[in-house]
Design brief:
244 residues; Metallo-beta-lactamase, Chain A; seven-stranded mixed β-sheet; single chain; 15 strands; six-stranded mixed β-sheet; 7 helices
Length: 244
């Protein structure tokens, strides 16, 4: 896996030039937090990267429960039995293969690779505003009903999962880029994604780190542009009545 460090965050990327799948190691004083668990074959590379950083992985935090974000979860948990696993309360249902919708949610199908055979149970079910080490948990539904993002307040690095995709040009989840359409095809609610994207832009991040594509420095202008493009698309479809 390709490894790129930005301050306290290391991006690990599988197939960076073909179909980039990212996960992140966030460095704390004496430990590491792994954000997302990539694909099933990536567990050895993730552990090697942690060993090279000289600190143990003590937490695995999941942005959402799609297969390319939880693939190595079981393998890592078996190898690191004391690690604590965090996911939103809502996506904990997806993690166990339950893709039914809740009352009050948009009645749109939950798309993407919902895992069916994950054995690991979460230790902590996250809510908006919770803290995991140096990370602030932000509820950002849209790509899945329980998607979350994580903001490192020390450095301004925003790890946004698939709330945005950077491969082929920055886009809000659900807004398709023909050069890399997969995050859009796997998105549950484009409207909820738009609302979450606005929330993330308002954090004024120094860096944007997503599930697919390179990290972006000073990303707010690009985020606002992607939001405007999403608004125009949803306005034309009649999903929203006006654009900001």
């Amino acid at each position: 896996m390709r490894k790129i460090r930005q301050q306290t965050v290391v991006q690990l990327t599988y197939l960076p030039n073909l179909f980039p799948v990212n996960c992140y190691l966030v460095e704390e004083e004496d430990s590491l937090t792994l954000v997302d668990a990539a694909l099933p074959a990536n567990a050895p590379a993730i552990r090697k990267a942690a060993e090279e950083m000289g600190k143990p992985i003590t937490r695995i935090v999941l942005t959402h429960a799609h297969g390319d974000h939880v693939g190595s979860l079981d393998a890592l948990k078996k190898q690191l039995p004391d690690v604590r696993v965090y996911i939103s309360d809502r996506d904990a249902r997806l993690l166990r293969g339950d893709s039914t919708l809740l009352d009050g949610e948009e009645q749109l199908p939950i798309r993407g690779d919902v895992p069916k055979k994950i054995e690991t149970l979460p230790d902590v079910r996250l809510q908006d505003g919770d803290r995991i080490g140096s990370l602030l948990a932000l509820s950002t539904p849209g790509h899945t009903p329980g998607s979350m993002s994580f903001y490192d307040e020390r450095t301004g690095v925003l790890i946004a999962g698939d709330a945005f995709a950077a491969r082929g040009g920055l886009a809000v989840a659900g807004h398709m880029k023909l050069s890399f359409p997969f995050p859009a095809l796997a998105t549950w609610s484009p409207l909820a994604s738009l609302e979450s994207a606005r929330k993330l832009a308002d954090t004024h991040p120094a860096w944007l780190a997503v599930g697919h594509g390179n990290m972006i420095a000073k990303p707010e202008q690009a985020m606002r542009k992607a939001i405007a493009e999403c608004e125009q698309r949803l306005f034309k479809k009649g999903v929203i009545k006006h654009v900001t």
